[in-house]
Amino acid sequence: MATWHCVKYCGACCQLNPSDRPDLADYLTPPELALYLSMVGPDGWCIHLNPDTRECQIYDDRPNFCRVQPDTFERMFGVAAEDLDDFAIDCCREHIEDVYGDRSLESLRFERELGLLY
Questions:
Q1: Contact call for residues 39 and 48 (beta carbons, < 8 A)
Q2: Residue 46: Cβ within 10 Å count
Q3: DSSP string for the chain
Q4: CA 40, CA 81: separation in Å to the nearest integer?
């Protein structure tokens, strides 16, 4: 079983375009939704993403909805702590493929780093 972790030089989760996530109001509180929408830049990317390094410029202070941790995912999506790794891996895989493509370097790096590419 693979353990989820963030993969460097990806940033796919920082593609925040609300039209790609029509169910935001289903799992974010009204204040969280307002904060989320304030973070979306004109190109759909988070305004806090450094485009050169693909790293979050507010990582230590990022909102809870940006954190892959058991309490956040249980509250937002009803995912039990023991299911978090599988759920997060599936979410990342899907989002990386949507943003960069299923044969992208980001997708291959994700699969390889998590030991999912054999």
A1: yes
A2: 19
A3: -------TT--GGGB--GGG-TTHHHHS-HHHHHHHHHTB-TTSBBTTEETTTTEETTGGG--GGG---HHHHHHHH---GGGHHHHHHHHHHHHHHHHH-TTSHHHHHHHHHTT---
A4: 29
Per-residue pLDDT of the chain (118 residues; tens, 9 = 90+): 688 988 889 999 999 999 999 999 999 999 999 999 999 999 999 999 999 999 999 999 999 999 999 999 999 999 999 999 999 999 999 999 999 999 999 999 999 988 876 5
Q: Report residue 28 as tokens.
A: 């974010």
Beta partners for residue 55, in sequence order: 50
Rounded to two decimals, the pTM is: 0.89
What's the half-sphere exposure (Cβ side, CA atoms, 13 Å) at 35?
A: 11
